Amino acid sequence: NRYITIKAHIDGAPKESDFELKDAALPLRVDPDTNLVIVKNLYVSIDPYQLNRLKSFSSSQTAINFAAGVTPGEGIDAYGVGKVVVSGNPEFEKDDLVVGLISWGDYTVVKPGVLLRKFDPLGLPLSYQVGILGFSGLTAYAGLFDICKPKKGEKVFVSAASGSVGNLVGQYAKLFGCYVVGSAGSKEKVAILKEKLGFDDAFNYKEETDLKATLKRYFPDGIDIYFDNVGAEMQEAAVANMKAFGRVAVCGVISEYTDTGKRAAPDMLDVVYKRIKIQGFLAADHMNVYQDFLQKTCDQLSTGKIQALEDISDGVESIPSAFVGLFRGDNIGKKIVRIALE
Ligand code: NDP
């Protein structure tokens, strides 16, 4: 069983050489008393938050509490889709398709209590479970509707807009009747947002020198909702351009993950006078909207109203470059690694 691990904790931007491929024997059978399930991994999710689990937390940083830190040499769990090959758990049978916490490797030995459930692909690609119908989709849906509470016609700005969460925020907001502008890191990404995904407008933030002025250009009357995926200067510029009673959903701050010295410092007096609400959130706290999200998104997929933007590479050995690429902006849409064909 080949799997990816880190050689040592990572500080700063990750490099492919921080990772290694290891091999370990896999049990051929499991004792029914153990409730273990062996899963052949098919698709694994590649997510920016993983970097925060791969850092050393010896300094002033505190370990994030919703996913444990990773020890060098050990496997790295991630959301993904697989097929049961051996089951010692009465809830699962051989050949069941499952989604849950599997590993960045060929196979996963899933312990009882670890998130794993059977699913029906409903005729849709299995990879959708990892992105649009998985946590990326739920994050976009819950962050936009639960946290930002949009009203029709409101003006929405989303950063990292061609990414997995960002593109869906924009698509949901458009379908709901908002005006949507996205920022992304290349001309190609900007073209996809405007021409393929129906954003009202989009810009390449790497070509802009004064983000406050840029946002003023795109939102002369101000922003109602900012869906923040990047933090730092972009958050400051967005807050400076918010309308009174604007809402900022802080989904993630990817530009700060690789740079410990970088922190958003929005003008707090501005926040007070404009009565802006800035709220962080975690998708996992919003499982109450999961069925609603799933139903609506499946309907929108079947009628072609929403599109799944995916970026898939192949093989366990491609995981380090897929992961490192998130921080270089290599991916367009949900980054997924296909480990094996069904
Ligand atoms: P993406 O698919 O958006 O991939 C990351 C993208 O971020 C890159 O493609 C890149 O696009 C952009 N990026 C990378 N570095 C920088 C930088 N320094 N400045 C600005 N943009 C940068 O990833 P996800 O959609 O999975 O995640 C997006 C955000 O949402 C992350 O912050 C993540 O941590 C967060 N998240 C939060 C969840 C929650 O429950 N709160 C759940 C899932 C994700 P570009 O070319 O535009 O630079």
Offer a concise description of the structure.
With 342 residues, the protein is an alpha/beta fold.
Key words describing this protein structure:
single chain, 342 residues, alpha/beta, Quinone Oxidoreductase, Chain A, domain 1, Rossmann fold, 10 helices, 15 strands, globular, binds NADPH dihydro-nicotinamide-adenine-dinucleotide phosphate, ADH_N_2, MDR_fam, oxidoreductase, Enoyl reductase (ER) domain-containing protein
Please state the overall shape, judged from the principal axes of the Cα atoms.
globular
Ligand kinds: NADPH dihydro-nicotinamide-adenine-dinucleotide phosphate
Q: How confident overall, as mean pLDDT?
A: 95
Give the SSE order as H and E letters.
EEEHEEEEHEHEHEHEHEHHEHEHE
- Say what the CATH topology of the largest domain is: Quinone Oxidoreductase, Chain A, domain 1
Give the count of structural domains. Answer: 2
- Strand proportion: 25-35%
Q: Number of helix segments?
A: 10
Helix content: 25-40%
Radius of gyration: 20 Å
Q: Total strand count, please?
A: 15
What is the CATH homology-level superfamily of the largest domain?
Medium-chain alcohol dehydrogenases, catalytic domain
Which second-level CATH architecture of the largest domain applies? Answer: Alpha-Beta Complex
Stretches where pLDDT is under 50 for at least 5 consecutive residues are 58-63
- CATH C-level of the largest domain: Alpha Beta
The biggest sheet, with number of strands, parallel, antiparallel or mixed sense and barrel status, is: 7 strands, mixed
